[in-house]
Amino acid sequence: MNTDVMFSSKTDNWATPQEFFDELNREFRFDLDPAADENNHKCNNYFTIAENGLLQSWGGHSVFCNPPYGREIGKWVEKAYKENEEHGNIIVMLLPARTDTKWFHEYIYHKAEVRFIRGRLKFSGAKFNAPFPCMVVIYKQKRGVKSGKD
Length: 150
Hints:
Elements: H1 3-6, H2 18-28, E1 63-65, H3 73-87, E2 91-96, H4 102-107, E3 113-116, E4 134-139
Parallel strand pairs: 1-2
Antiparallel strand pairs: 2-4, 3-4
């Protein structure tokens, strides 16, 4: 695997650092990673690119999602928002802090908890820190919303 390409601007896949994930996992106890592959998944349950997590239900799970950071990122944020609205489950996303985007204002601002990450995150396998700031977005569990396991 060519990690020079994988962690350059030529890719939209940025593997979550294990220690960073572990800290969030202690708080949220994740059981689904809907945007992963065989090498970088963080949960035993995960969807690959071929399975397309955008087309799957995330209901009934505590979800950790570090989606591809390319042009489709807004679709992943919209999916997380809508899954949380429908199922009320916890969904946590690791995202670039792009507060000027349409997806941030439509699906995150005033709708989710946002934790900005101090400094620049060093993604797994990367030689250098990310060239952009990051944030953790938390769609909290909602009571009285139908679970995907019902």
